[in-house]
Predict the 3D structure of the following.
Amino acid sequence: MKAKVHVTLKPGVLDPQGKAVQHALGSLGFSGVEEVRQGKYIEIDLSETDAESARSQVDDMCRKLLANMVIENYSIDISD
Amino acid sequence: MKASVIVFPGSNCDRDVKVALEAGTGQGVNMVWHGDTDLPRTDLIVIPGGFSYGDYLRSGAIAAHSPIMREVVARANAGVPVLGICNGFQILTEAGLLPGVLMRNANLKYICKDVHLKVENTDSLFTRAYQPGQIIRIPIAHHDGNYETDGETLKRLEGDGRVAVRYCDEGGAVTESANPNGSMANIAGIFNDSRRVLGLMPHPERLIDPLQGGTDGKAMFDGLVETVAA
């Protein structure tokens, strides 16, 4: 199975990198950019063939390492 | 007193800490590789500054799961004092020994300069050789030093005297303009609930000898050596 993991900052957590990207977009002439939040995208190849079991493994990986639960949320997509 | 310094791939302040500890104790220091699983008998553990694992994923995140860290967490929970400096502070938060997280500096810049700190609580092994409210000057050198935590935890840190040092101006005023990195409440260092674990972003080991331009960091190592060796 393949897992696609998105790690994003929780709402309300300041994102100075997102702000800098937003300003850079503004100075490139892209108007109307109201907010930019920067996150991480991680692809994982798993030997596991059962989707539910793959999801639960990746969920455990997110909690233990891939996301910092103090400031980040995560979402998981599982596919063949 | 026997101290241990944990060395990760990318640590770069390990030798400075070793020199500071040896100057205080007059004894050798165990340098322990992160991949080891055994920690020798030790009275103090120091996690030094640097860029463990190139700051991949998040600063300190990978190091926090190095084999030796299981033993560090167990010893800390058994009461062995642990000092984390800069990347060491980041590793201690990622390992769950200290609350909160060190985020990217608010101005997005790597900052390397001397800052003034107010010693907020001297009732600890680490800060006992300072005077309450003393203003000291210590260098910082980091990209991710912006301390954040939730409101509830911040209240607990403040209420329980767990803020060790705060960024301030030369006169000791804790102001926004004296805050180099955007940290909540100008926090530069915090204790765990027993005050036997300290994490701080500034580098006391870089100011222990007049040749380095000052000795404001020396009292931390002297205080530790005096108490832990006693």
User: Anything to note?
Assistant: Residues 2-79 of chain A form a domain with the Mth169; Chain: A , fold (CATH 3.30.1280.10). The beta strands of chain A are 2-9, 40-45, 72-79.
